[in-house]
Structure formats: structure tokens, C-alpha cells
Amino acid sequence: MDTEERERKQLEKETKKGKKLWNNHKWNRHVEVDNNPCLEESKSSLQCIEENYSKRELCNSHFEAYKTCKKYWHAVMRERIRRGIKPPMPTHDEREKMKKELGINFVVS
């Protein structure tokens, strides 16, 4: 059995078991909602790039929304660290509650 076939069978096994296909923990960290507060904005930017590959300037509003989101949550995290609040990044539910209370929406429609 060659390496390629072995990898394919392993991938099929993992998919059937419902395991994540990405084994790289650093990658998983960025695609999980609890660890990435700007996941929606990131996906929105990438989708815009895919749709408008030749005219990237059409995606500037998506890029700005993503940058604003990153800056905002980074500032929140710095403030929580300064105050000694753990964990430094609020959980997904806490972030959603904060966004509702403040009326914040970074995603471009």
C-alpha cells in the first residue's frame, strides 16, 4: 500500500468518526468560534475575495470591518489582562452579549 492510499484511508476513517480533518492545532485555533472573535468577518472577507478576485477593491469594506473587529477585540483583551480578568478573551457567548448591549456589528452585508 503506497503512502497516498494510506493517507486517503486514514482521512476516510477520521471523517467517518466525525473527527476534525485538520490536525494542526494552530490552524484549529483560528477556525474555532471561541478562539477567534472575528471569524465571521474573516469568512466574509475571504468569500468576497473569491467572488471578486479580479476586483479586490470591491472588498475594501469587508477588509475594514475585519480590521476594526480585530482592533476592538484586541483592545478588550488588553484591558482584561490589565485588570487581571481570566480568560483574557471573553467566550463566544460573552462576546455576543457585549455586541448586543453596545449595538456593535462588524459584518458587512
How would you describe this structure to a colleague?
This protein has 109 residues and is mainly α. The protein contains five helices and no strands. It has helices at 3-17, 25-31, 39-51, 60-83, 92-102. Helix 3 (39-51) packs antiparallel against helix 4 (60-83). The longest helix is centred in the middle third of the chain and has 24 residues, at 60-83. It is flat, with a radius of gyration of 18 Å. The relative contact order is 0.10.
Separate helix tally:
5
Largest sheet: none
Provide the succession of SSEs.
Answer: HHHHH
User: Which descriptor suits the 3D outline?
Assistant: flat
- Tell me the number of strands: 0
Helix content: 55-70%
Low-confidence stretches: 18-23
Head-to-tail CA distance between termini: 49 Å
Structural key phrases:
single chain, about 110 residues, mainly alpha
A few lines on this structure:
The protein is built from 5 helices and no strands. It has 109 residues and is mainly α. Helix 3 runs antiparallel to helix 4.
